[in-house]
Each structure stands twice: as C-alpha cells, then as structure tokens.
Automatic annotation (TrEMBL), chain A:
It comes from Roseivirga thermotolerans. Keywords: Cell outer membrane, Membrane, Signal. Residues 341-466 form the RagB/SusD domain. The keyword Transferase does not apply. It comes from the Bacteria. This is Membrane protein. The lineage of its organism: Bacteria, Pseudomonadati, Bacteroidota, Cytophagia, Cytophagales. Belongs to the SusD family.
UniProtKB/TrEMBL annotation, chain B:
This is SusC/RagA family TonB-linked outer membrane protein. Belongs to the TonB-dependent receptor family. Residues 428-782 form the TonB-dependent receptor-like beta-barrel domain. Residues 1-19 form the signal peptide. It comes from Roseivirga thermotolerans. It is found in: Cell outer membrane. Gene3D superfamilies: Carboxypeptidase-like, regulatory domain, TonB-dependent receptor, beta-barrel domain, TonB-dependent receptor, plug domain.
Amino acid sequence: MKLIYKINIAAFLLLAVAACSDEFLELTPHQSVSNEQALTTIDDYNSSITAVYNGLSSANYYGRYFLLVPDVMSDDVKQHPSANRAKDYAEYIATVGDGIALGMWQEMWQNINALNAIINADVELPAAVEADRNHIVGEAYALRGLVYFDMVRMFAQHYTYTSDASHLGVPLVLEFDQFNEPSRNTVEEVYNQIIADMNQGISMLSNNPRTGRTSTLNNTAAKALLARVYLYKEDWANAEALATEVINSGEYTLVSNGNYLSSWSSDYSSESIFEIAMTENDNRGSDALGRMYIVEGYGDYLPSNDVVSLYSNDDVRRGWFKEDNFLTGDYAPYRVNKYPSINGTDNTKVIRLSEVYLIRAEAKANQGDNTAQADVNAIRQRADATAPPVTAVGPALLDEVLLERRKELAFEGQRLWDLMRYKQDVVRNQCTSSICTINYPNNRFILPIPEAELDANPNMQPNPGY
Amino acid sequence: MRKMLLSLAALLLAWGAFAQTRTITGRVLDDTGQPLPQATVLIKGTLNGTSTDLDGRYTIDAANNDVIIFRFVGFVTKEERVGNRTVINVQMELAESDAGEVIIVGYGTQKMEAIAGSVGTLDSKKLEQIPMTSFEQSLQGNVAGLQATGIDGSPGANQQIRIRGIGSISASSEPLYVVDGIPVQSGDITQLNSNGGRSGNVMASFNPNDIESVTVLKDAASTAIYGSRGANGVILITTKSGKTGEARIDLNTLVGFNSVASSKLLQPLNAEQYTQLFIEGYTNRGVSLADAQQNLTNRFQQLTDPVTGRPTDTNWLDAITRTGVTQSYNMSARGGTDKLKYFFSGGYFDQESHIIGSDFERISGRVNLDFKASDNISFTNNLSVGSFDQNGFVDGSAWANPLYNAYLLSPLIPIRDAQGRFNADHKNYFPMGGNNPVGALSGDDSRLTEQMRVTDNFSVNVKFANDFLFRSQWNFDVIQINESQYKNRRYGDGRNSGGYAQVSTLQDRNWVGTQTLQYTKTFGSDHNFDALLGYEAQKSIRKTTYGYGQEFPNDKLRTLASAAAAYSASSTITEYTFASMFSRFNYDFREKYFATASIRRDGSSRFGADNRWGTFYSIGLAWALTEESFLQNSGIINYMKLRTSYGVTGNAGIGNFPSVGLYGYGRDYDGQPGGEPTQIANPALTWESQTNFNIGLDFNLMDKLDGTVEYFSRVSEDLILSVPISMTTGFSSLTQNFGEMKNSGWEFSLNYAAYTSSDLSVNVGFNITKLKNRLTKLNEPYTDGTKRREEGRDYQAYYLFGWAGVDQSNGDPLFYTDETESEVTNDINQAQRYFQDKSATPDFFGGFNIEVAYKKFTLNTQFNYSYGNYIYDANGRFIHGDGRLTPRSTTVWAFENRWVPGKTDAKLPQHVWGDTKGGQAANSTRYLHDASYIRLRNVTLAYDLSSVATMMKIRSLRAYVRGTNLLTITREKDLFLDPEQAINGVAGGLTPAIKTVSIGVDFGF
C-alpha cells in the first residue's frame, strides 16, 4: 500500500515539475507586438503610417489645441468668463509647467519617432508592393516635414525673426536613440530639413491618397503644404510656383457660394486638399475644437467684434457666427459656429484650395505682381458676390490679401502667425482679457519648451521669457 | 531542645496565621500521558511560581482559595482551584490550531512560540457582522504596522493597505492576499467604473463572516516563502472549517442606518447667499450694479421652482443625501464526525450609502469540507461563491460627480422642471453640461458593477513513513465582472449623443497548483526538526470585452442593442505565469532556541528574458528567555521571547510585459488600424527586491500584560523608476531598476487585562506604529503632482506653493515667494514651490480598544488614530475657486470667509467672476490640511440573553447595538474632508466615510 502511495506522489511531483518548462514562462502580449515584428510587411507600413495620422488628430494637435492656442492668443478670439482651457495663453500667463505645451510637444515628438521608424525601416518586401511602400514612405517624409513645420512655428519664433533665421528652432531628430539629448537647431536648419523632407515626399508620393479621399496625403497635397512653408520662409517665387501647380492640378475646385456654409458641416468638400478625419466612431468628442466654441460644448471662447465686423452683411461667412442671447455686455452677441458638430465629428481642415489661392496672392503681391488681385477676388467674391473687385496695387494690394486671409482663415489657427510674419502687434479692440495689447516682438508669442523636457535634457535651451 | 520546639511552634503558628498555606505537589503530563518537564506552575495573581522537573513533578505552596496556573508552549494553559487538595495532577491538552496559540503561516501552521518572524493576527470575532462590505476595513487599528484606508467611502469600494509603509514607487505597494493557501486577485480590476482604482474591490465578494482568522506577515522570515510577491507583506485569510461534534447552527442578523461620518463637511450656498455672491462677482469686476442684476435675470431662467411655486432655492447636497440602510443576515452550520467535518454558510449583505443611488448588495455561500479517508489520507475542499451588485457614480473633478457638482451648481436651479421631470433646462444657461445629480442618481443615469467570484481549493494530504506529509493542492479562482454605464439623453454627459451606454465584461481566471512535502521529526527529546519542500505553478488569464453605443430611442432601453449609432467595441487578453520552488526549515532546541530559514526560486513571464529567475530567502532566530533557568521562576516575567530575522523578498507587481519593446495598436484613423512604438525595450528589467531586517521582543508579565515591541527596516532596492528622458526620443520616460527607498520604524502593541473577576473584566489593548520613509537613491529629483521625489526625503513629502493668506487691504491672494517664507507676492509667477516639511505619511498611527464585560453585558470599543499626515484637497481649487469660473457656486464656508471691503480676517480672496489673480492655483498649501484624527471605529454593547435562549430552547441568544465611525475628532479645525483618504493623501471628491448605527441579534441553535 505504502509503495503505491509513494509511486503516486512521485508521479504527481513529476507532473508538476514538467509544467515548469520555459515555455510556461514565455508569454507574448495580445494587444501589442514586439519591436522586431512590428514593421515587417506592407500591412505594418500601413498601420504605422495610419498611427501617425491618428497622432495628428489628437486633441493636443490638430484635434484642438494646435488651432485653438494661437487663435486665443490673437485678436480674433475673446474669452468667455467661464473659459478654462487654454485661458493662460489668452492671458499670456502660461508657465513652463503648462500642460498644453507639454502635451503638444510630446505628441509631435511621438509622431516624429513613428515617422522615423517608417523612413528608416530596412525591410525586404515583395516587388508587387514596392509602389505601395514608396507612397507610404513618401507620406512619412511629407508628414515629418509637416510636423517639424508645426513644431518650429509653435515653439520657435517665425523664420524672419532674425535676418538669417539663425535663432533657436527645434532639435532635428532623424533616427531613434533612447539616450539622445539633442540641442536645438537653428530655424534655418529646421526649414531646410522641412523643405528637403517635403520634396523627398513629393518625389515618392503617388496622386492617389491611400484612403481614397483627402484624409491622407497625396502628391499634390504635399505640394500645397510645401507652398505654405515657402510662404512662411518668404521664398515668394517657390510659394507662387507650387501654389500654381496645385491650383492648376485640376484636382480641386473652390466650393460655390451656395454650398460654402454647409461645407463646414460636411467633410471632404471639393476644395479639401488635406483634412484630419473625425469619424462618427473616432473623434475627439468633448475635447473637439468646435466644442471650445459652441454653447453645447464648453463654449469657452467667442469671436471678437474685431473680426466679426470685417464681414459685410452679404458675406456668406457671416454664417460662421451665431447669436447667443445669454451673452451680455462685452461677451455679446456671437458664438463661433465654423465647427458646428456637437459630437466633435467636424474634420479639421489642414489645408484647402482657398488658402492656396491666398498663398499665391500673397506671394505675387510681395513680388509686385498685381495679378494677385484675381486670386483675392476668387475668394472674396465667392463669399460675397456683391463685393467690389480688388483693384488696389502695391502695398495696398498686400493689405487686401492679408485682410482676406484673416477673414477666410479665421479660427483655423493662422491669424497669430500672419501678424508675426508681418511683425505686427496683437491689438484687441474688443477685449475680455486682462491683457489687450501684446507688442511685437514678444517672447510669449511662442510656447514654452516644457519644463519636463528641460529637466530631462540638459542640452535643451529654454524659450526666453518663460 | 525546648527552645527549638518553641521556635518550631512559633514558626508553625506564624505560618498558619500568615497564609494558611500548605505544600501542594503533583505532576504535569502532556496529551499522551508523558511527563512535561519545564512547565510553568504559578499561583494566579502572585509572583510565586516554579517549574516542573524532568519527571514533570512540581512542589508549590498554596492556600485553599488559590488558583494554580499550568502553562507550557503548544498546550492550552490550564487553571486549577486548590480547594482542599494537596496533590494536583494535570494532563495538558494540545492547543488546537484555532486556539490562538498556533497560527497560520505561509504553506503551513506554526506554534506562536516558535515564530521568529513578525506576524499580526486578527480573529473572527473582529470580523463577524461588521457593517462593512469587506474584511480589510477591520484590519486598521488592529494590527501594528498596517495602514488600511478606504480610499472611497462608497459601499464596496477599494481599500488601500500598506504594511510597514510604501515599498515601491511605480510597482505595486499592495500586499499579496492568500485565501486558504491560494494567492488570489485583490484590489480593483474594474474597467469602466473604477474611478481610477478607487471604487471596485474584488475581495468584497468574500463574506467576512466566513473568515476564521487573518494573519498578516510582515517581515522576511514570514514572507520570503512567497518570494517575488512577498515584498509588500502577505495577508493570509483562513476560512472557517468544520469541527468534530454536534452541529452548531448560527444565525446572525443586523440592521443598521448609515449617514456621513464626518460632521464638518462643507455646505452649499442657499439662494440668497448665491445671489449676493453672483452680483458681487460682477461688481468686483467693475460691472455696474444694474448690469450685474441684469446678468442675473438674463442667466437664470427658472427663478420660480415649478414644483413648489416658490422662489427657487435648491440645496443640492441635501437632495442627494439620505439615511441609508444596512442589512446583514448570515447563517452557518458547523460540525462533523471524526471522518467528515463540515462548515456551511450563506450570507446576505446589503448596504445603502448616505448618497442616493449608491449601494452594494451581496449574496454569498460557502462549503468547506474535510474528509478523512483513512488514518493517512485526507481530503479537503473549500468552495466559495459570492456575487454582488454595486451601484455607484463617477468621482473626482468630473462634472458628473454628484459630490462635486452639488457645490458648484447654483441654488437658483430647480431640481425638477415644469413637466415634473428632473430638470435639464439649465444646460442652456449654466455651463456645466446641465448635470442634475439628483436625477442622475435617481435612475436617469446608471453605473452598475456586477461581480461573481468562485473560489475553489481542493487538496489531498497523504501521511507516510511516519514523519512525512505530502500535500497536493489545486485551486482556481474565477472572477466575472459585468459593468455598465448609461448616460441619459436629456442632460449631463449623454446630452449631445442622444444618450450613450458603455458595457464591459471581464473574466479573470487564475489557477494555482501547489505540491508540498513536509518532514517533521524530533531527534532525541531536544531537537525538533521540520522541513518543507514545495513546487508551485500559477497561471492567470484575463479577458475583457468592451462596447459603446449612442443615440438611444428612449431612456428606458439601455443595452447596446437599442443604440442607433457610433458603435464601437474592443476586447483584450492579458496573462501571466509564475513557476516556483521553495523550501523552509524549522529547528528548535527544547523549544528554547528556534531557527528558521526559507528560500524560494521564482520564475515569471513578467521578468525580462535576461532575468527570468530570481531567488529570495530569509533566516530567523528566536530565543525563549523564559525557558532559561534565570528567568524561569521570576514570577513577574511569565514569558519572554527575543526574535530577529533577515531576508530578501521581491516585488513582481510590475505589470505583465514591462521589459519588451512594444508597438501598441488601436491608434486608428479614418477607419484604418494603426500602430506605433509605445514602449522602449529593456530586457534587463526585473522585479524590485527588498532587504528586510526585524527584531522583536514578545512578553507576558504576570499573566496580565501581553506585549510586543519591534523594530523593522525595509530597504527596497532596484526600484522600477520611469526615468524621464528627452521627449525628442518619442518617449517621455524609460523604465529602469534604479531607485532605493527605506522604510523603518517601531511597532508597539500591548494588551492589558486590567481587571478580572467573575462579574467584571476589563481589557485594554493599544498599538502604535512609528514609521519613517526615506528615498535613499534616486537618479534625479522630480515633481510628481503635489509631491516632489528627492533623495533623502520622505517619498510623500509635499512640494507646493506656500499660501500666505489674503491681503486684507484689497482681497488679493498672497503666496510666499520661496521657502524662507519671508516675502509674499500676489503673483503666483513670482512664487516658487518648496518643501513644506509636511508629508502624506503619518508620524505615527495605530489603534486602541477597551473591552468591558460585566455580568451579561459586554462593551467593545475600538479607536483608530493617525497623527502628522497631511491631505491635499484636489477639488478645493474648483469648489473654492474665488469666482474663477463663472457662474459656479461655492460653499457657505467660502462665502463667510471671503474677503469683502472692511473684513480683516478673510481666509479667502475677493470673489471676482473670471478671476485672473490665480489664488486658486493648483499645488498650493491653501488646499493642504492636517489630517491627524482619532476615530471611534467601532463601539458595540452586547447583552447575553442566554436565559431567554433556555426558554426558547435554543443554544444561545445575544443582542447588541453597534456604532461604526460614530465619532471623529480631527486636529485641524478647517478640515472639511473626511480625514481617511488615499495613502497618497490626495482627496479627490470621493464619498466620505460612512457612519453606521446598527442593532443585531445572534441566534445559536
């Protein structure tokens, strides 16, 4: 009897120990994939580039703050008394510990890292998918240019701040190194990289966006983005040339007067060149840009009368403003309704044909070319058929271009940079903040390099004034 | 000779007159009839004592009404009244495992006297019919060194437990829970309704009435046998098992009434106060009085309450609070024969919070069986099933948190609209999403967590070759959690989505197989030897599914099947495994010198490929001083043991795949799947290790005073730190084994039998823990919320802006510019954060209790206290926001203490709508409070109705009244929060602790 027990016990123990193989302890995650296996097929290229667009759509980036923050710093937007989010920028009192600057910085670098991984991937793929890979890597280059352009605009002074753009830009990181502690390149170096990346992208991109619509980049979209970079760099000839290529591509047409207002509540209009998709299932919800303005959302920010008064009564763009009877005094009477979705499903327009017309107009006007008038008229008279055509020439024509830019691109996050590029003060005539005039030049026109970055990276120079 | 006789007579006389004592002799035998040498023999209440010789014989002088106490390690202490006897022989009985002398330790039991490690115990009496959802709530104040706090006072919420301080920065600091030998899942694993890990607790499915004892293992000698999971201490829960004898059937009933424990909570404004503040907020901005009045009438559209027809004056806090009811019914049967012993129980527990719509309801059942198949083979199976439903709400600074918006919503908003529905109209004029906490908690919204847990523990024990015991134990623990949330279509978070619903299911399956072989042998009569060898394998798999939908046809249908739009769904699987070998040796010499050593080798899927296996060990020594001849008959010192231990344990609570470089998915865009790098590879990453040292002294003086004094030191090494790295890498931190932290301190416990007679007994217990925490190695200091982690400082040291009060001349907020506190500024940008020398770690904490038994009455009181810890009121800056956010309301305290012209003792700045002075900046000492408190945790007055029981022909009957959290005294006058908050001291708008007054009747059949 005893012997039988002993045998049983031995068997038990053996069974137990047998389970203790290394296999038992070797598990793989179900929601993630190890680095080594993450970028090996064309599907992996697809999912990797898709994640970058997802990053662009974050509330810290094109989903909200990248457009909102410069606008609340400008003269187009005034604060509602209940304003909370981004209020420190409207008041110009943000600190290095600010969460928005941190969130945006982090989001942009996460995208750069993901793009570097795609650009630097060294994988053998079947010849049949080589064209697809080329397009994706082209997207990656163009997007890296875009992210660096956005970063250098947000965290560094504009290109013409110093005569040779030798002022502090942002670090250029082109490959992953977890121990890297880079210092900042000059703005000129950053622009050179942006232009190189975008040109590389243009050379690789096909004309068919992967998603079949303008929610991802194609060749012409990359050109439109590069036109904007040249404009900011005041390389008027290149800006004009690329804008002309985009306009003449025939891929886009200006939305008609009748459809223009409704194009802001429907996605992928005929003039859309690149926009960030906010689908019914995948959007920023209560964090959406539009909900910062509409009363059904946070309603934190209101249009200043400074900008509202620029539109004639016949201007279709007046429809971007909606009266709210609960607003009183300086806060009355309008709310911004350019992004009307209650659920946050408005796509964020990154670049559209109207802007490309205005880029060309500005480039031409700066070169003394009066045909800029036609480009301004295309935008002005589309919005208001009764508006008299622009006939001004010289500096007056440039003023007309800039006025039209302000009206057309209002609440698209461009106003502050347009003021900076022309070295103008921010003057809030109707002002609900404690600060109403912000003089150019100003350290606080740009965001602080986040404290967390300064703490972690001894080579990172802070932005002066913070 | 005559002289001598005279002397003798005188002596005899004197002797007789003095005490009338005589010499008693006798023999002390053990349970088998063998003589017990060295047993203590003592006259009760005196210092007179002796011990038995090698034959177990003793001689002692005693009088007729003396009582002689016989004591020996491992046996039940026996008392004999002398009477007219001159020879008193006793046979000692072995102490049973539940008699307190033998306690449960990891993978076995040990005599209390033989333990060299540090353990604390809690018996079933302190757990029966507690009006609380889970047993952990009883641990606080009862076990030295253990801090237990209900982070959230809502029924069924999670408990944070720290044994001897916080042992880790980023890995878990929670102890390992072991139920009847199985390491089980503890804490909050809910997906939807967790409120950041505060509101769920998987342990709440266990019925506290089923617990026989709780043992808390604190030092390495006791925890190293749990290897890589022992570093934060171990809580061993042993459930009741059957006992030989007739069936004992018990029925316990309890009904209680719940209200809020703290009497000083903030009160919201009334309509008159709010109106005044509203106008003032505008005039202080320079708006004319007429315009301010106009703003009021423009804004508030419902100034007449449609229900009452009178001017609207809503007290939102009153409207969401109530007196809740607790009910607890528990029935059990316990008995058995030599062959089969059983314990059955069934329980029902229902607790309503003092907040409407928040409750917890549990049904539970248990069957514990022991079957002795033969002299050598026995089987046990413990099966428990528990199921609960928990209704709760969102907390923190979410608009929907009722305990937050009850203060922020204006009293000028009515609760119901003209149609009698819960009001939603204010979403048009009051910018907080139209939340209506009364409606949300009354069923317009829902937030339900349902948990079912089945735990089974099967084992077979085989004795062979006299000295060997083989035990094979197979356990499984299955947890199923279904969570759902619904937000109604008209107001609150669901208003823009046509209502939305979220559901989540979680299934956690955990199995453990443990094989142990034990060898027990006494060599000669002096050398007792006991060895244990074991192997254990564990696998845990968790699967979750999640779904979302919006656009509901009405608010009655709340399942996703009725959602018309925006479906989304996801599912996840996570798993981990452990494989372990362990061994323990115990040795003692004549039960005088004890030595113990344990070792465990753990392998886990969690550890990096380069560090898959780790070895953990401990040694412990103990010396029973009272077994030495020099202390044997001291009379004062009945028992004294010095013990010490040293060892290394690990903390594997580091997540499931921390060492692998990963791409994370779900980064989708425009309907396409996306994935990007989410984790940097670190194959060297491994468990955190902890070096423990413990020295303690246990003593008993004169059979009246029991006590323990202990010193401990826990050094946590290789702490996993998220070391910040330049974000230009695409990551913000790199996880490394780097830091080091030390917890050291003293524990002191005393139990004093202050008075004992046949009618009255008074017992007093007291314990105190003094804890010191220091970060001893950190790569560089970093600020983490309200704290800053810096080498040489307490891990929980606050690092805040120094609030300097209000400028009484103009109502501006003032801050100290720096730590010298010599200058003040009204501009926070001119102020620096600095260390306040205040921490969330208490200087000391503990509990004390008094038990009085008088005839048939017994009175038990238990107090808990904590001293020197500070809490930070995270919602304070919103609730007391000086008008920063128009037109949010505030509290009466703020109203009364705000600055107005002429006021010279204002505590809060001037109220200005859209305030830009920044007085409400986060991380300022304005919102820091001293949380030192004493709380009357439990007071129970019971009456033994045995005479009625006899009449009713039942075994026993007992009735009692009980108060839980009846009284709270705080050191700070302005503490408007419950002093019991999360261990990190940050209070985030959670349900304050419950006070319960209950009555109970226990029937024995």
